User: Fold these one by one.
Assistant:
Number 1:
Amino acid sequence: MLAGRSLLEPMDFTVEEMDEIFALADRIIDDPKKYAHACDGKLLATLFYEPSTRTRFSFEAAMLRLGGQVIGFSEPNSSSAAKGESIADTIRTIACYADIAAMRHPKEGAPKVAARSAGIPVINAGDGGHQHPTQTLTDLLTIHRERGSFENMTIGLCGDLKFGRTVHSLIKALSRYENVKFVLISPEELRVPEYVRREVLEKNNIPYREVERMQEVLPELDLLYMTRIQRERFFNEEDYVRLKDSYILDAEKMELGKENMMVLHPLPRVNEIAVEVDKDPRALYFKQAKYGMFVRMALIMSLLGIEG
Ligand code: NCD
């Protein structure tokens, strides 16, 4: 039962619970009209302390398309955070008005702190360089819809694997399926954090390799997950400038990939995928953004305990 629970990191849900969410998302995609009033009278609060396009809009669109309503802020200086209010006090107040909340925050663990005093379900919409579980639900729904199964895959993750929270959450979630292998493609300085390597990959005996060059591994990948270099989390601009164009996926490199290789990206992209790749049928990132709304519809219904 997901009713009343929070989603702070991908392992909060079992594989079976995730399957239930994907099954509900499938039903919503098949017949969206049927769900147009599923959340009548319910209110979602979106608390965004960091910039966002897809995550916030898809949460808000999801609630509105279910017949519910949305309140919130996308500019923390317009809330009492600017007066020094604690997260715990802010969420206790929001919980007086809303039924469910989605929070994005630059500090790792902030949504977890909020969930402790909320009394309503809190969804982590990205906490610093830590986790981003609803992006993972989005990524998994895309794989489920486009490929059918999560098993027997070689997954290449490319770019900023150190600060990229979507990568950390996706590795965690995919590590629970049979016969998955990871190829971690990044510059030395932007490798996956030690805790992900040790506590997820090594602990579960998941085969993985760390490489710097993309070309040599492209032919073996079933999924290529591209990411942006996370400028806002760098300590100095010089390092960012040196690393920002480490990887650029273009049409020539796509020729090295399998015919059915899936290319995903949480977006926003900066330079790491050339626009010419967009017309390749293997480029799924805009479809992925659309699936993000459907999976959030399924998530909101499930956490509110609304049958569907
Ligand atoms: C990602 C994020 O915020 O972590 N974006 C998103 O939610 N789709 C990825 C990024 O910002 O690079």
Note: Strands lie at 43-48, 69-73, 100-105, 122-127, 153-158, 180-185, 208-211, 223-226, 262-264.
Number 2:
Amino acid sequence: MKLFNLAGKSAIVTGAARGLGQAIAIGLAEAGADLVLVTNQSAADETKQQIEQLGRKAIIVKADVSDQAQLAGIIEQAKQAYGRIDILVNNAGIIRRTPAVDYSFADWQAVLSTNLDSVFTLSQLAGKEMIEQGSGKIINIASMLSFQGGINVPAYTASKHAVAGLTKALANEWASKGVQVNAIAPGYMATDNTAALRADEVRSKQILERIPAMRWGNNEDLKGAAVFLSSQASDYVNGHVLCVDGGWMNR
Ligand code: NAD
């Protein structure tokens, strides 16, 4: 299991208080990493406790990733805590649903600044550290809407297509410097992010019918992909968008 061992590695996960980010943070800790848990309003105490129970370290950094002015502080606090940054998981994200004709520019900007601008700047800041140390792993959380258009979510779709593109662009520049940049595209997962979809009986049924695995994904389903892309096992994997979707994209 040496290939997947993250002992001695430090990892930043944004949006780590709940949902997919919480599971990814715990999954990395189970593989041996120490964590920086970035969160905006929601308390990440539960995630921290679970990580500490595993015998790993965790610090909580309160920050709003949609505010560019707060991003350098995240990297600084991570460096202060662990001396280096080995893994960055850009997970924090929001979705706002409105038909495109009525979509407000305020919603557009809120979604793009959270889902895309933060990914660029945090990757740039962490990437500089990683290039200097000659190694590092960046994992961006993409979506099925990195490939498809979705309905009533134009800003989210634009942001997630851009996250896939940015992943490839950064991977190309940094692969030769020992830094791997990849993305995970979760399928339809049962989290707060999809509560509205699951509450809509018609859409919920349509979605389920298209998933070959015949179930919504759960948070645990992302742990394996996150550990793989954070570990030595993926050292020759660059700019890949790994679907963890129960087969949705094949259909
Ligand atoms: P969620 O709403 O349960 O969790 C999102 C997390 O991000 C929360 O902890 C929230 O506090 C944090 N966050 C939001 N805005 C923030 C900000 N400005 N600053 C700091 N933290 C912020 O959603 P989730 O389903 O766990 O989503 C996590 C990621 O996975 C998102 O990028 C989302 O787009 C993506 N995703 C989710 C699904 C799904 O089916 N749930 C599918 C594909 C992609």
Note: Residues 14-15, 17-21, 39-40, 42, 64-66, 91-94, 114, 141, 143, 186, 188-189, 191-194 surround nicotinamide-adenine-dinucleotide (CB under 6 Å).
